Prior knowledge:
The chain is of the alpha/beta class and 322 residues long.
Amino acid sequence: MRRRNVSLPQEFIFRLKDLLPSSYYYQVLNSFTKRKPTTFRVNTLKITAAQLRKSLADEGIKADAIHWYPDAFTLKNTTLRKLQDTKWYKEGYLYVQSFSSMIPALVLTPKLGEKVLDITAAPGSKTTQIAMSMGNSGEIIANDISRVRLFKLEANLKTQGVTNVKIVNTPAQRIWQLYPEYFDKTLVDVPCSMEGRFDTHEPKTYAGWSVKRVKELAKDQKWILRSAVSATRPGGVIVYSTCTISPEENEGVIDWILKKEAGKLRVEIIVLTGLQTMPGVEKWYDDTYSQEVKKTVRILPSATMEGFFVAKLRKTKSTVSQ
């Protein structure tokens, strides 16, 4: 495949080439030039996937199912704006969300009656997905530091008919002090450099990118993850995710927490059938990571998928001093 003229930051392109196998490099690079389709998931708190698909079809809107998530669809024959004009969107029967963004909550596998923390929750894409999986049972704490973003979260919860969520407004790094080893499962979808969402049609998506920024974000991500670990009970699960590609924000963060909480966490294997992925890398420039990071998953950007990274941790021992 020939490389297209891509106007992304040159240093990002060099790093991408150093990270990816040659068989993936040009495909991933070209993916940033492609417009992603509109994708959405059904809100099963209000309607089944079959019912929604038929209701949309009755209005002349075609939605194609995907094989790896039966509640997710690709919009085929109309625009996002027209979908947003429907009752099905306005009244929360569906939620517009990228496919990659749906994966962390699927890996978390929240169950009926559990106590779940979404540590950086706004605007609520994953919170509403978790609530849906739990059938509005149990308890979800949705935390975010931004009051403005929390208004959007609150509105989304209401529209989607979610009733099992309590909203908290506190720095993620400190939430473990409010809920020490309280949760069965915790989602840690951290603020990141968003490399997986770069779009050459939208220069603002990469205008602020720099290696310096990547490393600054990684520092914050480490302490958010450590707070999440301390807020989760022994035996519980923590899912860490980013929509970025840089190992500093991904494998580097997982390697750090494994060292910080040595012997108290284990990385679990993630199986994502039918998606183009690659395992975590053990070496990145001068850094060497634990072999355990090979169990993490990098979802490669493509014509339909944004780039994402997901790691699943099992907490085996207490991390909070009694």
